[in-house]
Each structure stands twice: as C-alpha cells, then as structure tokens.
Amino acid sequence: MPRHASDAGNARRHTPRQRRRGRRLRCCFGVAAYAFASISAAAAETLGDFMAREGIPAATRPRDDLAQIVSGAERLQSARTRTLAAAVGRDDQRRPSFVVFVNDAPGTRWRTAQLAWPAGGPCDGGALVGLSASAHFLFLEAHINPSASCTMVVAKRDLSMRGEIAGWIVAELRDDRVVYQHNEIHFAPTHYVELSVYDAATRRSRKIYPTEPCTPIRCRHIRQVQLAYDRCLQSDDSRAACGGAFAANNHHGDATLFDCSLDTPVAANPATDSIAFTMSFADIVTQHPSVVYVYRDVSDPRRMAVREILAADLDARYGVRPLATYLQPRMLDRLFATPRSSAGRGD
Predict the structure, then answer these.
(1) Which of 1, 15, 270, 288 is the most buried (most CB within 10 A)?
(2) CA distance 119 to 124
(3) What is the mean pLDDT of the segment spanning 29-33?
C-alpha cells in the first residue's frame, strides 16, 4: 500500500512507472464540488445513441453530427451543472475530436461545441481519458502513450478551446491555476518527474519541481547517482557490467535526470495555496529515499517556499498522517518555522 494512501482523492493520474506496474492513482479533481466518472461507450455507438442514452435532446447537435462514432466519454457532475465530453470520429481517424455538452442547471438548454486539436500544436490528439474543471475552465485529458497525455483547456463561458498542456492535471489551485505533470519520453533510459503550475487565464506555465537550485536531499542523491553513472561509463566492460541503457551505449549519463516517481497523489489546498507530495528517488544506487515536498504560496513565484523532508523523519516527528493535514494553516506554520536546512525556494 502506498504511503498516505488516504490522499488518493487529490490526484487524477498515475505516474509512468506506476502505470507500468498497473497501479493507478486517481482522484476526483475538485472533489468538494464535482463527481467525475468515465462512461463506457457501447460498441460502435453513435453520437446520437450516446445523446439519447444521456438524455440530451437530439436537436442540440446538427443532424449530420449524430452519425459520428463515439470512442470514449467522460462525465462531470456538480450540484447543479452537468458536463459530458465524448471523443468522436471515424474508426480510421488517429486524432479524434471532442464534443462537449454542458447543462448549467436542471431545466435549462444544453450548450455544446465540437473541438479539435489544432494542427502544428504541441498536442496530437489521443483517446479521451479524463474530464476535470476549475472555476472557469474545463480540462479534457487525452491519452498519448503510457508516459504521455495531452490536456485540452476549454473555457466554460463559450466552450472554446483556450490552450493545450503537454501533460496531465494532478492538482487544482485557486484562480483557475492547476498543477500538471510533464510528459516523459516513454523509452528513455530514465523516467523523472517534472511538475508545473499552469494558469488557464493567462495560458502561462511555471515549473515548480524540481526547484533550482536543487534542495539538499535531492542534491545529495544526484551526487550519489552521478558517481554510479561515472563508474558505469568508464569503459566498454563497465557499461556491459551495468547493463541496460549503459550496455546499449544510449544512456544520457546526467544524474539530474535520475529515475524517480510520485509515491503518492499530489495533495492540494487551494485555500492555503499549498501542495504536498511524496517522491520516491531511485536509479542504480543502494539508497532509495522517500522524500516529502510541501509547497507554500505555490501560485506566487515571488513568495513560493518549499520544505523537503525525508518521509521517515516527517513520520517520526508528527506521526503517519495524510499529506493533506500538512496543508492546514497551523501545520504549515509549524513546518515553515523550522530551520531551512532541508528547504528550497522556487522561482
């Protein structure tokens, strides 16, 4: 069982390594306001069939659209608003488009739009696997491969496409900001986590993990991994002994890109503008520490502060508890009142 398993409601995507192991860390994004569900489309179900099954009047879409084949669908339900998204297109299409339906309140007319990925953009379509929301935007996640997704950003007001994210949403902040995990190269010699804050209103991203300069525990692990890399890359014999990408002579040899993964979902507290997560450090060294990161004022690059603490030390100090409890004002004050020897500051 992953550490802090009770935080499973705070993230909505698993890491590439967890996907390969068959573990899925999923959350109901905006869990206090929304209920998220995947909808199983019947074999060769048309858009017209889907709309009838969901109680959407056929007149909501042009008649010519109703014959489109639905390859997948997602639903988002709040107290009053009902939102559905369906991936549609012919069976031979590699890049399906998405049809979005929104019913703002019971008894009101459905609003709808059909959206396609723009040619030449950073995203190239994929199967619809997720639907989430902030106050003014929808986020439609499309699966690319086991290490990559693309997320379409849609304005709730007019259901227009407002941006693309090369990755998947892992946490919601305030003011239409979200945290997303970057895509990875699936067959790269190492897989490493990068996280950024995306502001849907301004369409700007800012990387928050890893921080620069590196934090003490991460720096120490990089030094250990670099020593191991250097030993493996000394000669043909050492490459063969280390095996894998070293033996194939295609390892990057850069310890800042060491193997790591999210060990827990990302916990978020929009009210305190804070997040927390646990990283599992790995690679070809004997020690694989589990490290907790707590971010305060994560939306403000001028004020953002980070605490980096070994998970074992945090448990010894406060007892095993859900990560979300560290994001309450009193616990944040306690964490950030300690000496900064194990903290970094991000820009």
Answers:
(1) 15
(2) 8
(3) 42
The larger pLDDT score, comparing residue 276 to residue 69, is at 276
**45 assigned to some structural domain:** yes
- As given in the structure block, the two tokens for residue 156 are 């709730």
Domain annotation covers residue 125: yes
Residue 327 lies in a domain: no
DSSP string, 141-156: EEEEETTEEEEEEEET
Residue 237: both structure tokens together: 């014999």
Residues 262, 15 contacting (CB under 8 angstroms):
yes
The pLDDT tens digits for 303-316 are 999 999 999 999 99
Per residue, what are the HEC states of 285-321?
Answer: CCCCCEEEEEEECCCCCCCCEEEEEEHHHHHHHHCCC
Residue 164 has which token pair? 């693309």
Q: Residue 1 is encoded by which pair of tokens?
A: 């069982």
Between β-strands 204-209 and 305-310, what pairing exists: parallel, antiparallel or unpaired?
unpaired
Let me know if residue 129 belongs to a domain: yes
Domain count, the chain: 1
Strand partners, 242: none
pLDDT tens, position by position, 70-110 = 988 999 998 899 999 999 975 445 567 899 999 999 989 99
pTM of the predicted protein model: 0.85
